[in-house]
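This section describes the prediction task in plain terms. A model, or a person checking by hand, is given the sequence of a single protein chain and must write out its three-dimensional structure as a string of tokens. No templates, partner chains or ligands are provided. The sample shown here is typical of the held-out split.
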Amino acid sequence: MMQHHDELKKMINTADDPFNMALRIAMAGNVIDFGAQEQLDIRETLDRVVHSDLAIDDSERLRSDLKTAETVLYVGDNCGEIVLDELFVEAIAHPNLYFAVRGAPVLNDATLDDAKMVGLNEKAQIITTGDNAPGAVWENVSEEFRSVFKKRMLSFQKARETWKD
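The expected answer:
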């Protein structure tokens, strides 16, 4: 994925809506990961996701939530996908953004070293889930992850309350 980084960053910077383009590119990372067991054309997948209509498009709500959030917790997944996540994290440009990775390598999951390699440590505070299981098993996650997660949930609840008005 690092081979595509500069080209994708240029796509974002020249887009009419850089936030939306970065979001779509990050979404494509999920599709690419889903196809990890298949031969997948990365360029075709990116083009399809970037230019397709979304079945559900809550991007404006996300943009609004991010502007009012006190804390943002972004949970990374696999080591290739976080290259695309890094581009979206840069577009978010939130001053209190945490990016969580696995506590230890599992399958192709992203680790602290991977996050540093793609430069996420320059755009977010990197934390680990403290767990080496796929996903984040609440009983096994670190206190740091729990604390940030709980802060994020409080921020989300405050934002939801303003929507009711």
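For orientation: The two ends are 43 Å apart (CA to CA).
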